[in-house]
Amino acid sequence: MKPSPSPLSPTPAAAGRSAAWLGFAADTLFAIGLTLILSLAGGVIWALIAAARGLDMATPGVLVQMAMAVIATGGTAVLLYLLRRRASDAEKMASLQAIYRSSTWGWTLLAGAAVFLGSSLVSWLFAQFTDQPTPSNMALMEQARAQYPLLLVLFAVGLAPFYEELLFRRVLFGRLAAAGMVLPGIVLSSLLFALSHEIPGLGDHGWAAMLQLWLVYGGMGAVFAWLYQRTGTLLAPIVAHAINNGVALTMLMLGLSAS
């Protein structure tokens, strides 16, 4: 039996590089637009609920902030997948075959360890010259840890890895990788992944701190994109992402986080 093609193998339909670049640009613009629209919709819903219950609209709680993140980024990922990068039957079969290969999970564990060690190395190197920055989502994580620890685990280890990998690896990286442009796909999707976590100008970070955070998130995105390309199944980077978040969350809950 002829093996099924990898979800990221170049095909005649995806061979046109110009079309792939245009598709990537469109995907990126759609992602930004949908995220803004869904964020606005979530904000309006919260404002209506707060007004009806006499709550302070300006200070949404932890649950509201996590729900809005799922709606905005998760909704964007699902919509773009369904409308722009839905897997074909052949891709689904190739992914299923990859899931049953033991090498897939060996590479997944290796990638998870590489991301954690690489992030730790970047943090240590920057610590020799400057203060350690606090990620912009740390305040939310701290509040969630104190108030809703089980929901925090579900959010950080379950939901976020799923929809972030769906958006940044399947939709964005996969668009260019399917046209044979793996390296540009890794670089650009990882850059967008880093920028989505730390947006310039929205926090009080200096450029050294911002560079460190971008290197951490960008390196993480690059490893996960490589893992997707190497294994042929999106489940591999989802699991590696969950492992990394789980380790970081465990350290946070045990008070071992450097932040």
Give a verbal description of the structure:
The model has no long low-confidence stretch (mean pLDDT 89). The protein contains nine helices and no strands. Helices cover 76% and strands 0% of the residues. The chain has 259 residues and is mainly alpha-helical. The N and C termini lie far apart (53 Å).
Summarize the structure.
With 259 residues, the chain is an all-alpha fold. Helix content is 76%, strand content 0%.
Task: Draw up the topology in text.
Elements: H1 17-53, H2 62-84, H3 89-99, H4 102-127, H5 138-147, H6 149-177, H7 182-197, H8 207-231, H9 235-253
**Helix and strand run:** HHHHHHHHH
User: How helical, in percent, are the residues?
Assistant: over 70%
Shape: globular
The number of helical runs is 9
Q: What kind of sheet is the major sheet?
A: none
Counted beta strands? 0
Separation, N- and C-terminal Cα atoms: 53 Å
Radius of gyration: 19 Å
Keywords for this structure?
single chain, 259 residues, mainly alpha, 76% helix, globular
